[in-house]
């Protein structure tokens, strides 16, 4: 039962990660020396905030389920 749940959480985690917007623009600007707002405080809003929270929740669930499977086996 836990194995099936782990597979479902894994697939959901992959999908949610792929739906998130890329944040590589700031990293590229920092490495190339271009001016950027990399270190400015930028808050996530709307869909980005929801996807980030779902990703964190699914990541925690993934590790908890994996540990439970290892302890049971």
TrEMBL record:
Main location: membrane
An annotated GO BP: intracellular protein transmembrane transport
Keyword field: Cell membrane, Membrane, Protein transport, Translocation, Transmembrane, Transmembrane helix, Transport
Subcellular location as annotated: Cell membrane
Membrane topology designation: Multi-pass membrane protein
Transmembrane segments: 50-69
Gene Ontology CC entries for this record: plasma membrane
GO MF annotation, one: protein-transporting ATPase activity
InterPro entries per the UniProt record, alphabetical: SecG
Keyword Transmembrane helix among record annotations: yes
Coiled coil: none
Record family assignment: Belongs to the SecG family.
Role played: Involved in protein export. Participates in an early event of protein translocation.
Record protein name field: Protein-export membrane protein SecG
High-level lineage: Bacteria, Bacillati, Bacillota, Erysipelotrichia, Erysipelotrichales
Protein encoded by which gene: secG
